[in-house]
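The freezer alarm interrupted the setup, so I double-checked each line after restarting. Inputs confirmed:
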Amino acid sequence: MSTRYSRQTLFPPIGKEGQEKISSKHVLIIGAGALGSGNAEVMTRAGVGKLTIIDRDYVEASNLQRQQLYTEQDVADKLPKAAAAEKRLRTINSDVEIVALIGDATPEKLAELAEGVDLILDSTDNFETRMAINDIAQKYKIPWIYGACVASFGMSFTVIPGVTPCLNCLLKTVPIQGLTCDTGGIIGPAVQMAIAHQTAEALKILVEDWEAVRASFVSFDLWRNQYTSMKMGRAKDPGCLSCGEHPEYPYLSAENMTKTTVLCGRDTVQIRPPHSEGVDLSDMAARLKALGYEVKGNPYLLSAEMDENRFVLFQDGRALIHGTKDLAQAKSIYNRLLG
Amino acid sequence: MNKVLFFAHLRDEAGVESAEIEAAGKTVAQLKEIVAETYKLGKLDSAMAAINEEFAPNEEVIQEGDVIAFIPPVSGG
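Predicted 3D structure, all chains:
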């Protein structure tokens, strides 16, 4: 199909030369939820050489409203998202080498996947993994693009090692916020807007048009008609432990990772986040009630139950997820509720 | 006088889009405390701050007339 990329190569900043670059590049996508589906589809249609995508979850009915790669059949088959994504992406563009992995994007896994990668597209639902991506990107000098969305808003920022500030410069710590797509809801357009920002940056990086890369941190609210661009010139922290003069890549070390433990004989997984700022339990209780959970609690903890889901959340951010022995599943439930 | 803007879910929690606050001479961290107290915002600590549309660290001192925006990092995806 010689005309396949004609409309993209007609665009002067890409051209034939740019297309050759795109088709020689390897993009790594972390997460195959809403952002992951959209980012993967745009990259596959654009004709990247190789696309690797990793996800630990499986397709559920509540995904279909916004996760564009998945179908009702995938829900019926309870397909892992990575497998369903791979199946669909192959039918879109057979020129692209698709590698789909079912599993958790731990720092070890990220280090293994980073080999030979030209760009990382963040499509995760939690800051712990993003901070690990940020450290891996600095360590191996790979550009990465932060993207996130919830309710009607979203944001994106492009991190280029050695050039821009990094996510650790901006956040300094892993924020816990209690507003995720599972608690605050999400509309399709907010997903698409985040994807548009991420993939436009991705194309610029793949064709090596560094001048065109957006230096600002963009955030938007499509319902309230807000759009803001924050200049980042002074955000780079020379003492940053991820990108500063003496990097230690703190989010690749075990002490900064969430500890998950199966509690023997209780069909329960304990999740303990590192250095938590603590959780506002009354705020969280209100959100969970709005979702239909039956919530009980005291000043120290809250217990929430809905159908087969039952968990206890402590003020320090620790949680006991009942009814499962599966570490990845428990972590997935935790991140969906707490971010 | 300074204008303070709330973005994303901070706007829902504060119940207003913006506020007028006397913040000249205070640091971003001090303003966060005042605003969190006034508007009962639980999670302002982790919000990013921009002064006149430029990222500002917690130690930055606010000048008369500066416009400060609080942007909470979002994690969904």
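Quick read of the result. Chain A touches chain B through 52 residues (CB under 8 Å).
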